[in-house]
Each structure stands twice: as C-alpha cells, then as structure tokens.
Amino acid sequence: MGWTRDQMAERAAKELRDGFYVNLGIGIPTLVSNYIPAGMSVQLQSENGMLGFGPFPYEGEEDPDLINAGKQTVTEIPTTSYFSSADSFAMIRGGHIDLSILGAMQVAENGDLANWMIPGKMVKGMGGAMDLVAGVKKVVVVMEHSAKNEPKLLKRCTLPLTGAGVVDMVITDLGVFTIDKKGGGGMTLVEVAPGATLEEIRSKTEAGYRTSNAL
Amino acid sequence: MQKVYPDTRAALAGLLKDGMMIMAGGFGLCGIPEQLILAIRDAGVKNLTVVSNNCGIDGVGLGLLLDTKQIKKMISSYVGENKTFAQQYLAGELEIEFNPQGTLAERIRAGGAGVAAFFTRTGAGTQIAEGKEQRKIDGALYVMERGLVADLSIVHAWMGDTEGNLVYRKTARNFNPMMATAGKVTVAEIEHLVQPGDINPDHIITPGVYVKRLVHVPNAVKHIEQRTVRKRTAAPAGTGEEV
C-alpha cells in the first residue's frame, strides 16, 4: 500500500510556491506538472534552453525545433523564453532555479544522491543531473521506497554519486523524509503515506533517521 | 571576403583531416548540422574526436559517422539513444568522455571566450572530479574544468546573412551559439540565407565574426525523436498524452 505514482507526484507538487522556477526530471517528476494548483504561477525550465513551456502539441502541430529535455515535442506559452545551453546551465548552476524534482536509484542519509550509472552496465551519461543537484536551491527526489526489496534509502550510497550532500527531501510511495544536508542534522521522517506504517518504513529503510514528533 | 559556399562539400573543403576534433551543435536531433555531417561522412575522414551533447540516433545525425566508424572518441553528456554506439563502445572501438551537460556547455563557452579553465560545483565529490583539481572556495568544494577549443565547429542556424550573422529558432539553439565561438574554424549551415541588414541587429545571436563559412540548406529535413501530442478535446492544460 501507500502512494501511487500519481499520488507521489501530487505530494511533490505541494513543494511548489507561487513564482517558482522549476526543473522536472523524466518519469514521475514529469507528472508533477499535472498538479500545479490553479492560480499559482510556476514556470517550468527545460535544460535544453527553454523557460516556460506548455503541454504537448495538438496532433499535426508538432515542431521539430521545439522539444523538452526528454526530446519530447512541447509547446510555447506567453511567458516562454529561449536561450543557449550555456545560459540554461548558468541559470541552473547559478542558483536561479528554485526547485529541482528528480528520480534516483539511491539516496543516503547525508543527502548523497546516485542516479546516473551502475558499474558494469552500459552507461548512458548523466545529462544535466549533476549540474541540477549542484546548483538548484532545493532538490526533491521522488522514487520508489525500495527496488526488488533492496532498500534505496541507505547509510551510504554504493553506486557512483551524482552529487555529494545535495538532496533536501525524499518522497517515496511510503512517506516523506527531509534531509538537513548543510547542517548535518541527518534525515527525518515527516509524513507517512496512507496505508503505510512506521514499522513498514523502518523495515524497508537502511538509512538512519529520526521520526518527527508530529508522527 | 566571400563566406557563402555553394554546397556543403565546398564549405568543408580543405578543413577536414584524420584525427581532428570537431564540435557539432544540437540537442538530440534538434538543431543538428545534419547536412554538414553528411558531407563529413562522404569525405571519409577518420579517427575523429567529436564534441556533441548526444550522438544522434541509429542512422541519423552523428549516428551516420558511427556506421562508417569515423568516430574514435565522443565527448558528450548523454548517449542513450543509440544501439550502434553501445555496440562499438562495448567492443572497445569507441571511447567516451562523459561531461555533465552544464560543464560541457561551459567548457565550450570558456574555450570560445579564451578562458583556459574554471571552477564549478558540478560533480564535486563524484567520480567526475577524479584526476582534476578540487578547491574549497567560500566553504564549498569546486572542480576545475578546462575550456575546450575544436579544430572545426559545425553549427545549424535558422537564418543567416552573407556576413555570417546568425539567428536560431526555438530550442534548436541549444549548443550551437557556444560551439560557433569555440572552433578554430566555424562552418554554419543555414535554412534561410538573407542579405546584411535583413536581420534586425538587435536579434542577432551569433555575430558574424565567429563564422568563417556558410552554406545554405533550404530543404533541410528535420527529425522528431519523441513525438508527443494531445487530443484536440478534453486534455486539461499542462498535461498531454503520449502516443
């Protein structure tokens, strides 16, 4: 039990604030755009050089010159701007983007993130993930709590890192954790998904964490 | 000074040699200098090091130069869309140097701007920083990355005048403007060739000083990697349906 993929995206959308500039990764993070509250101004950034993009085009109106970072055809909106990849990553690395929501293979209790390679398997590359986690103000990971019964929330990542001490929050199908990546205050369980229990989370989490008093 | 060449072969004449480093603009198949890539394939130069965010797909874009085994090494951030790439890599025929996408973009920008190296937080404390200088600046760890200059840059622009002033269209801009600055020689293919004065100077993105040669490609075929659309009815704003 716990949250579905859509419910995880809906929970992640609660981290949005009016006026935010946001970068969404591929997979569940993309679904977050379906849950932007009405009346809230949120501009989505695409690291291939676009700020402010709309939904997929109507059939027949696809433009090969207009794609997002997942290489999917998208559309322009009135707030759209275009810029080069260097400008795009100046925006990202320079701390001008408020929130990055992305997937992960592993997260450690100190905020380390691994999501780009498995040694011994064909490596596709990190794309923009290392820049995003190094530069964006707040980094939220959305992922399944465990993979084939192997925990993904660990004391230390065993896979090569995408970033060291970069994750602020982890949303899984079972609950929500915050990580005090700068202060060294460790990881705290702050929410339990409906249908999940503290015991279940404890048994599926290798990382050390405190449970919020509110729970 | 005549910058406009009659065709892609003429535009690259005398510039190609085995073992050279070539930068090729584009993100995925968007904004790639496809006609110039075809001309490089036909020229048959080998042992190339190619700097490009991706490596095309099978049979399209830089994927064509994999088929002919002209590429020795790629410097890229993501090469996931290409089966030929995986085969040649696993067979030890192809080297890959992965750069984080923003680091790649900045290395090219720096190279073109005469900056030998810079410090970035991207990749600090990861495998990417191994063998590179890391330095603590204002309490945070940074990695030193080097500027990149290529023997030749090939870029794709939407419009250009005979002076080499370029304008790009939508997300087809991507890596093209930085690469135009970072080639010892830059050759641009342009969809619309116009006269000086026809482009509003305020709108020019790449000034002509960076562009040595131009070729008009009026009927360039463009490719879509992931065709995602929505139905005309019922889909609420901000969503879409993948087909």
What would you note in describing this structure?
The complex is a heterodimer of chains A (about 220) and B (about 240). With about 220 residues, chain A is α/β, with parallel strands linked by helices. Chain A has one domain: Glutaconate Coenzyme A-transferase. In chain A, the strands form 3 sheets. In chain A, strands 4-3-2-1-5-8-12-13-14-15 form a 10-stranded mixed β-sheet, with helices on both faces. In chain A, strand 2 and strand 3 form a beta hairpin. The radius of gyration of chain A is 17 Å and the shape is globular. The model of chain A has no long low-confidence stretch (mean pLDDT about 95). Chain B has about 240 residues and is an alpha/beta fold. Chain B has one domain: 3-Layer(aba) Sandwich (Glutaconate Coenzyme A-transferase), CATH 3.40.1080.10. Chain B contains 6 helices and 14 strands. In chain B, strands 1, 2, 3, 4, 5, 9, 10, 11 and 12 form a 9-stranded mixed β-sheet that branches. In chain B, strands 6-8-7 form a 3-stranded antiparallel β-sheet. In chain B, strands 13-14 form a two-stranded antiparallel ribbon. Chain B starts with a strand and ends with a strand. The model of chain B has no long low-confidence stretch (mean pLDDT about 95). Chains A and B meet through helix 3 and helix 4 of A and helix 4, helix 5, helix 6, strand 13 and strand 14 of B.
What's a quick, concise take on this entry?
The complex is a heterodimer of chains A (215) and B (243). With 215 residues, chain A is α/β, with parallel strands linked by helices.
Q: Could you please say which CATH topology of chain B applies here?
A: Glutaconate Coenzyme A-transferase
Mean of the pLDDT scores of chain A? Answer: 96
List the helices and strands of chain B in order.
EHEHEHEHEHEEEEEHEEEE
Largest beta sheet of chain A, briefly? 10 strands, mixed
Low-confidence stretches of chain A: none
Look at the helices and sheets of chain B and give the structural class: alpha/beta
Alpha-carbon distance between the two ends of chain B: 50 Å
CATH fold name of chain A:
Glutaconate Coenzyme A-transferase
Question: What topology, given as strand order, has the largest sheet of chain A?
Answer: 4-3-2-1-5-8-12-13-14-15
* Termini separation of chain A: 18 Å
Number of helices in the DSSP assignment of chain B: 6
CATH superfamily grouping of chain B:
Glutaconate Coenzyme A-transferase
State the shape of chain B: globular
Low-pLDDT regions of chain B: none
Largest sheet of chain B: 9 strands, mixed
